[in-house]
Amino acid sequence: MDLLIAIISVSVITIIAESVLWSIFRRKAAPLSFPSEFDTSYFRFFEITRIRLIMFAHTILLLTVLILIYVFLW
Amino acid sequence: MVNGEHQPSRDIDFPGRHKGEEFQFYFRQHWIRLWWPARRLLIWTIVFGIGIFVTSRSFEGADLDFVRRASLIALSVFFLLTQLSFLVQLYTYFLYVIIVTDKKIHRIKKTMLTVDDHQSIDLWTLEDISKNQHGIIQNMLGFGTLVLVMPTQDALRIHFTPFINEKHGIIMRLREQARQRMMPQQMVQQMAQQQQAAEQPRTTTDL
After folding, report:
1. Range of weakest confidence among B119-128, B131-140, B186-195, B198-207
2. Could you tell me the pTM of the whole model?
3. Which candidate from B23, B52, B94 shows the least CB-CB separation from A46?
4. Which of A26, A65, B12, B18 is the most exposed place for a label (fewest CB within 10 A)?
């Protein structure tokens, strides 16, 4: 039971933190998203939709690492 | 178009845009800007790994359950904070944009919570445009500092400018074009000022 509570708590905290950061970023970055043909940065890969995918991948990675650690070492 | 090539519309809106400004290009700082945060993240992740390893070896057995669990919670909070701190730095990197139009250079710099700066410079007023590339890494990776010197204010330094040689050339060319466009208007203003200056002594002597 303790393990379940710990996993749920850490998952909720992670998801909330990631969502809050993403919502702040999205609000600030929305006026700064321009067509990629005018982008002369080194990497043109990073657009808002792609950064969102990175955010999802990061969240899943964090949850996986933390859940695995809790499951095996609790 | 004569050559039939697709030409994207330059009528793009952005914060602080003036009427009739045509978008030329924009850029973010070189990716090397993220090197230090990434290195810090790597070091903290290794520390976290060592912490987990030590916890799993040192606190075995039912009598040490409480200590092990408390250590795990502390380590996971530490891991979360380091990851989120890196994420904030990554997001902040994307919130720093330089926009170059046919008339101005806009530097938009935001952070997640505290900073929201916008600085605009008229291209035609720029006294000097220079670039600095110091060291092997800057020359190898093609980035450096773009220095925009204005007559009335301190110089604006844009650090970690990627492909700096090309950008330096393009901005120089855009400045010349902007100056040519501004020239007739400027001449009119100069003439008006000269006229005023010529009339000024007469009125004062009349008094």
Report:
1. B198-207
2. 0.82
3. B94
4. B18
